Every structure is written in C-alpha cells, then in structure tokens.
Amino acid sequence: MSTIGIIGGTGIEQLPGLSVVREHAAETLFGAPSGPVQEGLLGGQSLYFLHRHGGPRSIPPHRINYRANISLLHRLGVSRVVAINAVGGISPDMQPGRLLIPDQLIDYTWGREHSFDDGSSGSLQHIDFTEPYDRELRLALVEAAERAGIAHEPCGTHGVTQGPRLETAAEVRRLARDGCDVVGMTGMPEAALARELGMAYACVCMVVNPAAGLGDLPLTLDMMRHILEREAGVVRTLLQTLLSNLSAPAAEG
Ligand code: HPA
After folding, report:
1. Which of 64, 166, 221, 223 to probe ligand 1 with, by most ligand atoms within 8 A of CB?
2. Which of 52, 185, 203, 204 to mutate to test the pocket of ligand 1 (most atoms within 8 A of CB)?
3. Quick one: CA dihedral 97, 248, 198, 47, positive or negative?
4. Domain assignment present for 121
5. Residue 185 CA: which ligand 1 atom is closest?
6. Element (DSSP H or E) covering residue 176
7. 190 CB contacts (<8 Å, ≥6 apart)?
8. Residue located nearest, by CA, to atom 6 of ligand 1
9. pTM to 2 decimal places
10. Is 138 domain-assigned?
C-alpha cells in the first residue's frame, strides 16, 4: 500500500483525530521544512502530516519552503499527497463552507523556488502538467466525499496568487474571467514539486470566504478561521473515508 501524506493549511494546524506516534524533524538539501512531520494514525490508518505554515509563528505563503516540505515527505516514503487549502470562493456555487476537489489550476505566483531542477543534472526536466492533480487520487477523494455524504464540487479551477495580501476586486474579476472557481495562495509550487518527484498529489479546497468584492463583509482572518473550525470535522471525515477506501483490498474483477 502506498504511503499517504497530508499537508494542512490555514486553520489545519493539527489533523483532528490524528494520534501521533512519532515526529520527524529534519533539514533537507533545500533547507528547513515548515516544521516536524507528524507520523500517526487516523481511524487506524497510518499517515504523515505536515502543517505548511509551520509552528506558532506562522510562515506566510510566499515564504514557505515548499521544496523542503515536499522533499522531506518524499524522503519519508510518502507517495501520495493530499493538500488541504483554504480558499476564497469566486464561482456562485463556491460559498463559504463548500469543498472543491479541483482538477485544474492557474499559477499566478512569482519569485518562489518552484523547481528542484537547478540545471546541474545535465538533463532538462519538463514535467507534463496538463493535468496538475493526480487523476486517480482526485477521483479517490471525490468517491470518499460521495461515500461520506459530504457536499462537494468534483472539479474546478484553483487560481493560486502570490499573497500574502488578499486580492483587489478587479483582480478577482480577472480571475473569474480566466476561469478560476476559487483563489488561494499555497497551491503552487507545491503541486508541481510533487510531480517532479513522481508523487501523486491532489488537493481539497475549503472555501472560507467570498473572494474580494463578492461578499458584503470585510475579509478577516477571524472570518476564515471560524469557517475552518466549523468545517474541521468534515475534513477529518473526508480523510478518514479516503484512507479506509485506499487501504481496502481491491475487489476481484
Ligand atoms: N484569496 C486568496 N487566498 C485565500 C483567500 C482569498 O480570498 N481566502 C483564503 N485564502
């Protein structure tokens, strides 16, 4: 069975229900990861968990060492990564509390270390990123959401902006024209780095606010945290169902 790693974002500092058996804190060739990776059991299934914003002093999206995080998970033997991302909702059906399992992304980030390839290997690395998320893992998430009765959107486009500021209303209108259904700040280069190392990677976006210019209230971190706290149980149920589906022996065909 392949080893699962979960990367938690804002509001998912701990994985609810995870009983931790070990912590792995290690430097990598690319520097220090966001924090120790927890190895533990969720509903009897083993997994690794990393909080991407790090310990008590939160690392902002543009300063996260994505290469170190992915590299450490890879070294621990993780072959499938499920990333949890808090996002703003753009499409009308992307209201706070909604889950999206995106099938596409648009990368608007800049200035981040976005590849393991520093040109020293002597061969060029151009990963195929037509489908940025692993299809099988994505479908496993969709199936888990269906089985657990969790309302979700099974596909959509995740726009990833640089942050740490939120967008202007005009930027959100442009994202909407580009076809983005949600907007977050941490989906890239994480997804591409995982692909470079041959790890299956899929993402669960939790809508925590209407994107800038689309709601009536000013956007605050408290508003986002409130939704995340309210929906933490849903994320746990989704992950538990996913893990038990993935560990179940395949039906004879
Ligand atoms: N924009 C970008 N990132 C976010 C948002 C948003 O509205 N909400 C949560 N993360």
Report:
1. 166
2. 185
3. positive
4. no
5. 3
6. helix 169-178
7. 7, 52, 66, 69, 70, 83, 201
8. 88
9. 0.94
10. yes
Name the pairing type of β-strands 78-89 and 182-184: antiparallel
Q: Is 38 a member of any domain?
A: yes
166 CA to middle of ligand 1, Å?
A: 6
With H, G, I as helix, E, B as strand and everything else as coil, classify residue 191. helix
Residues 136, 151: Cα–Cα separation, whole Å = 20
Domain that holds residue 177: 3-113+127-247
Domain harbouring 62, CATH code: 3.40.50.1580
Tens digit of each residue's pLDDT (9 = 90 or more) over 4-54: 999 998 878 888 788 999 999 989 999 999 999 999 998 788 899 999 999
Distance 31 CA to ligand 1 centre (A): 27
- 235, 16 Cβ separation under 8 angstroms: yes
Query: What confidence score (pLDDT) does residue 16 get?
Result: 78
Locate the ligand 1 atom nearest the alpha carbon of residue 88 and give its number: 7
Query: pLDDT tens digit string along 181-227?
Result: 999 999 999 999 999 999 999 999 999 999 999 999 999 989 999 99
Residue 184 Cα to ligand 1 midpoint, Å, equals 5
Q: What 3 state SS string does 2-29 have?
A: CEEEEEECCCCCCCCCCEEEEEECCCEC
CB of residue 140 inside a 6 A radius of ligand 1: no
The number of the ligand 1 atom at minimal distance from the alpha carbon of 212 is: 7
- pLDDT tens string 223-252: 999 998 898 889 989 999 999 888 776 555
Question: Average per-residue pLDDT in the chain?
Answer: 93
